[in-house]
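Entry:
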Amino acid sequence: MALDPLLLFIAAGLLLNLTPGPDVLYIVTSALRSGARAGVVAAFGVTAGCFVHIFAAAVGVSALMAASATAFTLLKWAGAAYLVYVGLRLLLARAPAEGAPSAINSVADDAHGTGATALKDVFFQGFWTNALNPKVALFFLAFVPQFIAPGVQNKPLAFLLLGLLFNFNGLWVNIGWALAAAWLARRVGAVQRGMHKLERAAGLMFIGFGLKLALSDNPPP
């Protein structure tokens, strides 16, 4: 691939990763609620989920899903249900008791036991938030081939390499979201005092994302 198209691919990928969506919302919410470490773990979880779509698209699974209304519908409803589930968990979470240690401190101070378990949960929630979203698979199928030259002999390999590059660059954008959200939570007391309201708002947004996904049209045959 020539340098100019590659730079264009990187620039377009970075801009797309900067666009807020369910993944970014989950990363930011995790960082605001539990600190920078949880936000970064959430970013790695989202990135791991994205690998599923990259490899699936590279071997043609996403093309099969795009052509099969049944396969797309099943994955669409699974993804929508999971987004609604995450939203309900945030929406129904209890407010912390007055004087109780914040989630930021509890996760930062406990790298083992409960803290490690919590970070594991954060990772896998981020993973499933991305992996169960069929729109991500179709995005790769539509976006990446535009940057593969027609004369390339091994197109699946070119697709895989471009997908990995996209995901690698996206990881640093997602980590940036996490660190920025954690920085804000540490320095703005009003954010911490209003964290429960923020979680409720995030919960409503996740439910909205899930309903939007559930009601989205299947790709045309």
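The chain has one domain: 23-93+104-214.
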